[in-house]
Amino acid sequence: MRTNIEIDEDLLAAAMKVTGLKTKKATVEEGLRLIVQLHQQKKIRDLIGKLKWEGDLEKMRLDQ
Fold it and tell me: Could you point out which of 12, 13, 46, 61 has its C-alpha 20 to 30 Å from the C-alpha of 30?
């Protein structure tokens, strides 16, 4: 999808430098992927202490 937006050039240049990505498109897409990933991780972290698990962790570690 083609979209025209104004992006802080210094911020974009810094992001390209730290990621090593060569294009503006790749850098913006990587940033969007990171936003999605972080929000998905937050949803998972919100489940901490809310799920009941039963099992023998030591036995599971020994199973091949």
Answer: 46
